[in-house]
Amino acid sequence: MLRSAVTGRSVAGQVFVLQVVIVLLLVVSAVVAQVLQVRHDSDVEAANRSLAVAETFAHAPGTVAALRSPDPTAVLQPRAEAARKETGVDFIVVMDTDGIRYTHPNTDRIGKKFVGDITPALEGRTVTEHITGTIGPLVQVVVPVKDSDGKVVGLVSAGITTAHVGGTAEQQLPLLLAAAAVALVLATGGTALVSRRLLRQTHGLGPYEMTRMYEHHDAVLHAVREGVLIVGGDGRLLLANDEAHRLLNLPADAERRHVLELGLDEETAGLLSSGRVATDEVHLVKDRLLAINQRPTDLRGGPPGSVTTLRDSTELRALSGRAEVARERLNMLYDAGVGIGTSLDVTRTAEELSELAVPRFSDFATVDLFDAVLGGEEPRPGTALRRAACAGVREDAPLYPVGERIRWVATSPQARSLTTGQSIVVPRLRAEPGWRAQNPERTDRVLEYGIHSLITVPLRAGSLVLGVANFWRSEKPQPFDAEEVALAEELVARAAVSIDNARRYTREHSMAVTLQRSLLPRTLPEQGALEIAYRYLPAQSGVGGDWFDVLPLSGARVALVVGDVVGHGLHAAATMGRLRTAVHNFSSLDLPPDELLGLLDELVGRIDQDETPANGAAVVTGATCLYAIYDPVSRRCTLARAGHPPPALVQPDGTVHFPDVPAGPPLGLGGLPFETAELELAEGSRLVLYTDGLVEDRERDIDEGLDLLCDALRRTPGASPEDTCRTVLDRLPARPSDDVALIVARTRQLGPDRVAQWEVPSDPAAVSEVRASVTRQLSDWDLDELAFTTELILSELVTNAIRYGRGPIGVRLLRDRTLICEVSDRSTTSPHLRYAASTDEGGRGLFLVAQLAERWGTRYTPHGKVIWAEQPLP
Fold it and tell me: Which residues form the GAF domain (predicted)?
């Protein structure tokens, strides 16, 4: 390629040769200029040095006296030679006014005539001359010597050859030539690279070929009856042929201007500036229909930009107009598929249908649905409809408003459409008596308003008719035609499917909500150990499986439980109800939290085995639970959790922390035991139990949610549980992404003044002492009315403990909302209630206890058991 460039046959070769010649001329010119400059500087330097030496010698003290002495040469010759050697000039000649030399470097020339012009010097001026003397080319200066009266009494000439002055500069000439040679080589190399690139870009063409190609290109470009545009990567027009100027009516200075500044319509200008691929896109430009094709120019390494061709298709305008209508209808159907049914809400789906139809299809659109459909039920024909949606180009149309109950008369197009299931078009409403019979006063106002045409389409989903959609026209003078009826039916068919889906979802959601509300606690039981407030927020997607409960236990204790079944819908709600019922049953056994979770884990495992995927049911894996028991007497809280977030504890001073409760596996996994944690809570502490929807969602992880919860609780020092719930939930969205269950429980203490207990020896005689002590305690509590029944209950329970149990035996009375009697021993044998026969000597004591007490039971402790009985306070 480089050889081709050097030959000069191509444009690149000629450019290469021309640039090399130019560079060579520049180098030669620089060398010549440098040499001339050196010579000029040498002459100037010689003149300046000779002048300085001559003036200095002429004005030196004693020069005038020496000239007037009898032998000037004897005095001046030594001085002149000494000065010559010190200053580096070639000669210093002192002469009289006739030009006869007194001094000279060559003594044989003393006394001879000075060679040069001395006339100006005799007149008092300095003379500088360039001559060729006996020692070669030189520069000499003649300076007059004046006495004190200003009379010229002699002359002094100093001179130096230019060879002596310019020698240093001439020594630099080889370096200059070497630098010029290097510059020539570099310039030649750069020129070669440029020529090589030019050769590649011109494909080795010569000037003649390029000229011919350009002429042919220009002729073809402007002769074709198709517009051609080339747009650069920056959106500027680089080239436009004559046909493009004509079709687009471009200004004369269009080239190099941005395509958005050429006065084109927005759609066409946007296409040209985007550079995207286009194939036969039809654009209406002024009064012409143009078919536009566009391709990028950088597909194979070319420059960025695009080339566009334009073809006038005005003769196809009528056909294109119909194609445009068809395209608009297809776009509308596409938008219907995307925009209708975005939510599982019946009313919103009806609104989406009416909003899509206006103004693209009709000027007003209304949707009427059976009331049963709005409630999620199947429609009941013959009943009234309710206007679910209305949209229009104006808001003051005298049509039935949204929410109005409408019973269409049998002669109306709507009633006929509902009966037959077919669409009905009314081109001219004024000539339709059946429609006007619906409400003459309203229909007259509709006609006066300008509404003149109607299409009524039934909303059918399978065999069900859900309602009717009405499309009204007022702005366009043309009535609806048969083609528009087909489009309306297609739109309504798509909307009907979405409305039916929303109806089914509404029904299922209502059932799930009803089920969940029936399963969640509506009120909390009365108890005195905890002051409790709670909240439950359903998720955006509907009913979930979160639940909570408050369960009073024996001995004034209270159990708190929070659980979560993963998922939403009927199955999650039903599973939640089963687990909540199981917790109720297990809690009646008065089990520790870890044992209760163990039983619950086995239950979930059995449910999973019964409801396998093969049976079409979802498994329950993923259920979590936290179970806590608070004792107001000891102020101790025992907790265990199965895959559930830890509780938060707010101390009375406002300090917040998350107690270390061992995290067990979620319910249903089995194989691992659950562990408990025991906390001693100060009176007034707040225990916060919650589900993961409170602290975790799609936008943040659980650690960030726990930090936010902790921060919210710190802002409520001394607040009531109700205020705490409100503060915590204020930071959540109105409809969280997951269910949220929250319980805030503030602890109370059953003080020593409300608790009495005694140790009882294993001796039947001690029963009377217990009765006496209990009677005194009840008298102190002003509960004398309960003394008799309490003595009977305790006599039976203590006697049984002495007879069948193991010591030590304890008796405890608790005065809470009820009077609680407890008898404890070290035996694990539980008494059973039975009916004694008439011949039995015993077995009637426990039956008597059951009759006298409101509730009674047995709970087991790590050291034995406790038999308790409760009596209502008077």
Answer: 345-509
